[in-house]
């Protein structure tokens, strides 16, 4: 799973503000939801970048921006040197071959009126030059086999499959165009734990087989740790900490990451007694009106005056990896 | 979880053992439900019979309806072996006229239902899918038509355009013109729901264009309520045609329509009730069969509405 080093995706200062409007006929903008507010990172070939954060922190908006399903307010997404946010029409369609996604809910992400063969074959119908017409059925059956489904079930409908099997169908659809990058937006959170393991193993196997790069979005830290090479922690539309998985899990420097890690359920009742629990006060502030300076300061036990005045930049601080806290301090929360 | 090494390469067995021959798509499931629904069987059989009558009235007709077979001497006779339903004010055979009158009802009903489904459905699909000004424009135009009470509006339209060329075409036009906005609204709402589904997002992520998304993804998932309402509308159109013909603005003599027959017979109803009762009975049975059909279709396509 070691990344080969070649940079295939560059995200620079990505911003997405959703305007809040008032009035019916004459709409005036009265503010904006700052869903993603200045996110930068790189992704290398064959690497997995985990993205974690609580609900509403902008993870899914980030996924939509990377897939060019939403246009960013500013910033760029560069795939193999080509800026996807500026691509239009045929050029954008061609770029989409390189970046595909696996969606969260396997029950709503497959069209109930289409057979599995039609669903997995649709990428070939859209990108007609990928596979000649007579070849498509065979390709679809190959894909079914690759994701561990019976190729004879090509004429079945999604409702005849279980959740895990449906997620495999979604993965096969994402693989059809042989992309280099797959964005997994909480691909296992809708599945039973036993099925989660199967799907995670499948994703890992496919990564090795096809040298895929994953952006793996999740709120389950143990799932992310299992699959990721690097982890980015998001809070209110910003990355607050970014580093190799062991750096994040064992030497986390940002108080928010430490609080998140302390909330991971521990299956061992003995260990549960001895571990640290950091309980944050209050709710995340509204992304329409984020706090000045550091966005986490309203819930942070380390907050000082400087946190309200000056925004901490994402730079190498304590622990030897990127974090965005004036008082960054490497700390092993989970004692793993 | 990381220690879990369940074999992910082995083909996984299907969730529920289903025979490959069993219908599997949602449409064939609906058809499977319909075939086992007695309401659908009865309503469908009645409607098929009525369609057969209106397609080949000559096969069912016993006496004939042209001037040769009517004689004033035979006016307002009761049921006889020759005149199964008696005769009307002009001495024409009521049974034959009822048979020939079915055609107008069936044609007006089906053509209006299909025209409104296509126009309302297409505009609803466009408005719901593109939103913004397309939706605003189409919805406001629809609301203008929606605001007109339907029978009054049809009377007005027929009084203006139908004065000289009243007939099936103008009645269909009047009814369709007033009914398409309802279909537009239903389609628009269904399209807006379907548009937000993940599989549409997935298709966009694959690079599918708006045409493919509308035809392959949204339409099949949004068309069910339109089919249901159009089936129910079919009965309403048949009733409306009879009402307009009864009021004298729809089908005109010498064409035959049940509404027209009821209108002609109403003055002598106490002396000769048969010429009014039989067309009224057939009208009611036709509408009943369509309503039963509509109920069955609704249950099959959307079990949640039951």
UniProtKB/TrEMBL annotation, chain A:
GO molecular function, one term: ATP binding
UniProtKB keywords: ATP-binding, Nucleotide-binding, Transport
Alphabetical list of InterPro entries matching this protein: AAA+_ATPase, ABC_transp_ATP-bind, ABC_transporter-like_ATP-bd, ABC_transporter-like_CS, Oligopep_ABC_C, P-loop_NTPase
SUPFAM superfamilies linked: P-loop containing nucleoside triphosphate hydrolases (SSF52540)
ABC transporter domain segment(s): 9-261
A single BP term in Gene Ontology: peptide transport
Family: Belongs to the ABC transporter superfamily.
NCBIfam families: oligo_HPY, PRK11308.1
Protein name from the UniProt record: ABC transporter ATP-binding protein
Organism: Sphaerisporangium melleum
Automatic annotation (TrEMBL), chain B:
CDD domains referenced in this protein's UniProt entry, alphabetically: TM_PBP2 (cd06261)
Keywords: Cell membrane, Membrane, Transmembrane, Transmembrane helix, Transport
Biological processes annotated in GO: transmembrane transport
UniProt topology in membrane: Multi-pass membrane protein
Keyword Ribosomal protein: no
Subcellular location: Cell membrane
One Pfam family recorded for the sequence: OppC_N
SUPFAM superfamilies noted in UniProt: MetI-like
Keyword Transit peptide carried by entry: no
Domain ABC transmembrane type-1: 102-294
Ranges that cross the membrane: 39-60, 104-129, 141-161, 167-187, 222-251, 276-297
Primary location recorded for the protein, binned into one broad class: membrane
Cellular component GO terms held in the UniProt record: plasma membrane
Database matches in Gene3D superfamilies: MetI-like (1.10.3720.10)
Family the entry assigns: Belongs to the binding-protein-dependent transport system permease family.
Protein name as catalogued: Peptide ABC transporter permease
Organism for this UniProt entry: Sphaerisporangium melleum
């Amino acid at each position: 799973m070691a990344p080969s080093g070649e940079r295939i995706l560059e995200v620079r200062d990505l911003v997405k503000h959703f305007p809040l409007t008032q009035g019916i006929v004459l709409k005036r903008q009265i503010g904006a939801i700052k869903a993603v507010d200045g996110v930068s990172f790189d992704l290398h070939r064959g690497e997995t970048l985990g993205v974690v954060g609580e609900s509403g922190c902008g993870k899914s908006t980030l996924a939509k921006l990377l897939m060019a399903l939403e246009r960013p307010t500013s910033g760029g997404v560069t795939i193999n040197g080509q800026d996807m946010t500026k691509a239009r029409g045929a050029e954008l369609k061609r770029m989409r071959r390189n970046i595909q996604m696996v969606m969260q809910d396997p029950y709503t992400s497959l069209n109930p009126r289409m057979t599995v063969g039609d669903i997995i074959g649709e990428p070939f119908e859209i990108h007609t030059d990928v596979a000649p017409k007579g070849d498509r059925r065979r390709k679809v059956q190959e894909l079914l086999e690759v994701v561990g489904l019976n190729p004879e079930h090509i004429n079945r409908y999604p409702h005849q499959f279980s959740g895990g099997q449906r997620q495999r169908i979604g993965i096969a659809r994402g693989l059809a165009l042989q992309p280099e990058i797959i964005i997994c937006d909480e691909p296992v959170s809708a599945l039973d734990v036993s099925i989660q393991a199967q799907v995670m193993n499948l994703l890992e196997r496919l990564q090795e087989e096809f040298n895929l790069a994953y952006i793996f979005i999740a709120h389950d830290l143990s799932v992310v740790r299992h699959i990721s090479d690097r982890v980015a922690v998001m809070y209110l539309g910003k990355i607050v900490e970014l580093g190799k998985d062991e750096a994040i899990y064992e030497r986390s420097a940002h108080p928010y990451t430490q609080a998140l890690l302390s909330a991971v359920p521990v299956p061992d009742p003995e260990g549960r007694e001895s571990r640290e629990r950091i309980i944050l006060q209050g709710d995340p502030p509204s992304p329409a009106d984020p706090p000045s300076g550091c966005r986490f300061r309203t819930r942070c036990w380390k907050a000082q005056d400087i946190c309200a005045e000056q925004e901490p930049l994402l730079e190498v601080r304590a622990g030897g990896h990127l974090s965005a806290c004036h008082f960054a301090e490497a700390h092993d929360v989970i004692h793993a | 979880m990381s220690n879990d090494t369940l074999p992910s390469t082995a083909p996984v067995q299907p969730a529920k053992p289903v025979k490959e021959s069993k219908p599997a798509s949602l449409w064939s499931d609906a058809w499977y439900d319909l075939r086992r629904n007695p309401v659908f069987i009865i309503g469908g059989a009645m409607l098929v019979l009525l369609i057969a009558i209106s397609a080949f009235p000559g096969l069912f007709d016993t006496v004939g309806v042209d001037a040769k077979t009517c004689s004033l001497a035979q006016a307002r006779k009761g049921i006889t072996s020759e005149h199964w339903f008696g005769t009307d004010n002009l001495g024409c055979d009521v049974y034959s006229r009822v048979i020939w009158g079915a055609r107008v009802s069936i044609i007006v009903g089906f053509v209006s239902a299909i025209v409104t489904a296509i126009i309302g459905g297409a505009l609803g699909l466009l408005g719901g899918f593109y939103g913004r000004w397309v939706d605003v424009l189409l919805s406001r135009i629809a609301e203008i038509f929606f605001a007109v009470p339907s029978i009054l509006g049809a009377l007005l339209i027929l009084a203006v355009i139908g004065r000289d060329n009243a007939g099936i075409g103008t009645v269909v036009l009047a009814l369709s013109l007033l009914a398409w906005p309802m279909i537009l609204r239903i389609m628009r709402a269904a399209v807006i729901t379907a548009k937000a589904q993940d599989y549409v997002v997935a298709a966009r992520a694959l690079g599918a264009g708006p045409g493919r998304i509308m035809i392959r993804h949204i339409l099949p998932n949004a068309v069910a309520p339109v089919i249901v309402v159009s089936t129910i509308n079919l009965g309403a159109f048949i009733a409306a045609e009879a009402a307009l013909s009864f009021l004298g603005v729809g089908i005109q003599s010498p064409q035959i329509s049940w509404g027209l027959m009821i209108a002609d017979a109403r003055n002598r109803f106490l002396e000769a009730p048969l010429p009014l009762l039989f067309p009224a009975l057939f009208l009611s049975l036709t509408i009943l069969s369509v309503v039963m059909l509509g109920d069955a279709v609704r249950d099959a396509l959307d079990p949640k509405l039951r």
